[in-house]
Amino acid sequence: MLCIKQMTKIIKNGEVIESAFTIVKDENFNIGIANQLLPLSIYLKNQENLMGRNDYGVWLDSNEEIEVLSGIIHFNVIALNFPSFNDGRPYSNANLLRERLKFRGEIRAIGDVRRDQLEQMVRCGFNAFEMAENEDLAASLDSLQGFSLSYQATADRPEPLFRKR
Predict the structure, then answer these.
(1) Exposure string over 36-52, b if 16+ CB within 10 A, otherwise e
(2) Residues of 5-31 as b/e, b for ≥16 C-beta within 10 angstroms?
(3) Main-chain phi, psi angles of 154, to 5 degrees
(4) Alpha-carbon distance 72 to 133, whole Å?
(5) Residue 56: domain span
(6) 3 compared with 131, residue with greater pLDDT
(7) Exposed, middle or buried: residue 118 (CB in 10 Å: 0-12, 13-18, 19+)?
(8) pTM of the full predicted structure?
(9) How many domains does the chain contain in total?
């Protein structure tokens, strides 16, 4: 049975949009269907067949190492799954994608994504968010306007505040 999550609204780059991607959850995916976010294991098994295409992305669970993508990123969307609100490993993976792997595409938070996490997610490199089922998208988007400055250098602002003086 193919388990695909239907298209949904997400927050991306500061606005609410309809996601172009569906999330594949199991091994029985159709390689001919465009705009799928594939689990890392499916991508790795099928990467030769997917080369040259830009109509798919990859998603990783929090226990999967982001470094496995080093040198083989040929897509524009990487989603990082938060299996629970208190699992912080995807924050590190987003930061590694931006800083170490120099990924400049979309990094999407999926899973148990809550409004009060968004500020820190942006600072780690996320630029798209598929909110948890009961989260209000408008209120979540508004929460991103709460902080205009941060002292430390981050993935979204690599120059620390003190250097701007």
Answers:
(1) bbbbbebbeeeeeebee
(2) eeeeebbbeeeeeebebbbbbeeebee
(3) -140, 175
(4) 32
(5) 4-164
(6) 131
(7) buried
(8) 0.84
(9) 1
Name the token pair of 80.
């990082």
Amino acid of residue 29 = F
For tokens 């689990």, the residue is: 39
Residue with tokens 């299996």: 83
For residues 29-55, give the mean pLDDT.
89
Going by C-beta distance under 8 Å and a sequence separation of 6 or more, which residues neighbour residue 27?
Answer: 41, 42
Tell me the mean pLDDT in the region 7-31.
Answer: 87
> pLDDT tens, 64-86?
999 999 988 888 999 999 999 88
Give me the amino acid identity at 52.
Answer: G
Q: Taking all residues of the chain, what is their mean pLDDT, rounded to a whole number?
A: 85
